C-alpha cells in the first residue's frame, strides 16, 4: 500500500470525526478523497460517498435516538419527499446526464467535471455557512408550530442535491429544521444526522442497479469512518463545537478552491 493510500484511509477517520463533532459536514470530504487520492471516477465516487456517509451517520443517529434528541414527526415530514427525490435522481437523473454534458465548438464539459464543479460550489456555500457560524434562532416556526409544507418542499430540494453530488446536505438541513420546524439547534443537529443516514442509503440503493462496487475497498474505508465518529462523539463533550466548525469551514473552503483550480488547469 502506497503512502498516498495510507493517507486516504487515515482521511476516512477524519470524515467520521467531523460528523461526530458537528453532526454533519464529513460528507463533503469523501468525494474529493475518492477522486484525488484514490483516483476513483467521479460518478462512482459519489456512489461510494453515499454508502460511507449513510453508514457513518447511521451510527451517530442511533446515539442521538438513544438520548431522545431526534424529532420523529419533523423527520418524517422532511425525509419522505427527500427520500423520493434522492432515489429518483440516483436511479434515473445522474445516469441519464449526457457525457459530455455540454459542448460548444472546441469547448467540451465532461459530465464528471461538471459534477466536480457543482460539488466545489456547494462546498464553498457550506464553508461560508460554517465560517460565519450561521445558526438562526427562529424563523417561520418561531411560534413552535412546524411548517410541514415548507419542510416537504425543502426535503425535495435537499434530496436532489444529495442524489446529484453524493453529499448528505447537513449544512442545509440543520438551518431548515431550525427555521421551518422551530427545533432547538441540538435537536436540529440530531434530527439532521438521521435524515442524512437514510437519505444516503436510499441514494446508494438507487445506484445498485448500474454500479459494481469494490467492497474490498469500501468496507474498510467505512469501518475507519465509523471509528472516527465514535471518537468525534466522545470529543464533542469537551470541545467547543463553534470554533471547530469555523476551522473546518476554512479547511473545506481551501479544498474547494483546490478542486476548482485543479480542474481548470
UniProtKB/TrEMBL annotation:
This protein's UniProt keywords: Cell membrane, Membrane, Transmembrane, Transmembrane helix
Keyword Cell membrane: yes
Membrane-topology annotation of the record: Multi-pass membrane protein
GO annotations of cellular component type: plasma membrane
Annotated transmembrane regions: 12-37, 43-62, 74-94, 114-131, 151-179, 185-205, 217-236
Predominant location: membrane
Locations listed in the record: Cell membrane; Membrane
A Pfam family recorded for this sequence: TauE
Similarity comment text for this entry: Belongs to the 4-toluene sulfonate uptake permease (TSUP) (TC 2.A.102) family.
Protein name: Probable membrane transporter protein
Amino acid at each position: 500500500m502506497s503512502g498516498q493510500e495510507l493517507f486516504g484511509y487515515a482521511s476516512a477517520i477524519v470524515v467520521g470525526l467531523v460528523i461526530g463533532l458537528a453532526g454533519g459536514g464529513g460528507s463533503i470530504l469523501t468525494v474529493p478523497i475518492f477522486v484525488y487520492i484514490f483516483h476513483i471516477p467521479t460518478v462512482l465516487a459519489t456512489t461510494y460517498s453515499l454508502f460511507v456517509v449513510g453508514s457513518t451517520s447511521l451510527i451517530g443517529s442511533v446515539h442521538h435516538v438513544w438520548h431522545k434528541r431526534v424529532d420523529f414527526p419533523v423527520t418524517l415530514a422532511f425525509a419522505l419527499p427527500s427520500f423520493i427525490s434522492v432515489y429518483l435522481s440516483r436511479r434515473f437523473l445522474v445516469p441519464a446526464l449526457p457525457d459530455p454534458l455540454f459542448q460548444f465548438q472546441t469547448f467540451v464539459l465532461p459530465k464528471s467535471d461538471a459534477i466536480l464543479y457543482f460539488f466545489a460550489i456547494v462546498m464553498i456555500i457550506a464553508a461560508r455557512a460554517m465560517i460565519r457560524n450561521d445558526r438562526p434562532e427562529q424563523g417561520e416556526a418561531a411560534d413552535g408550530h412546524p411548517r410541514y409544507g415548507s419542510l416537504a418542499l425543502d426535503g425535495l430540494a435537499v434530496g436532489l442535491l444529495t442524489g446529484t453530488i453524493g453529499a448528505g446536505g447537513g449544512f442545509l438541513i440543520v438551518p431548515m429544521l431550525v427555521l421551518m420546524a422551530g427545533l432547538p439547534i441540538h435537536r436540529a443537529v440530531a434530527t439532521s444526522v438521521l435524515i442524512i443516514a437514510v437519505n444516503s442509503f436510499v441514494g446508494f440503493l438507487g445506484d445498485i442497479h448500474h454500479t459494481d462496487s469494490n467492497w474490498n475497498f469500501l468496507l474498510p474505508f467505512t469501518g475507519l469512518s465509523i471509528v472516527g465518529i465514535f471518537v468525534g462523539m466522545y470529543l464533542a463533550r469537551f470541545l467547543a463545537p463553534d470554533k471547530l466548525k469555523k476551522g473546518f469551514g476554512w479547511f473545506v473552503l481551501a479544498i474547494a478552491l483546490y478542486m476548482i483550480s485543479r480542474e481548470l488547469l
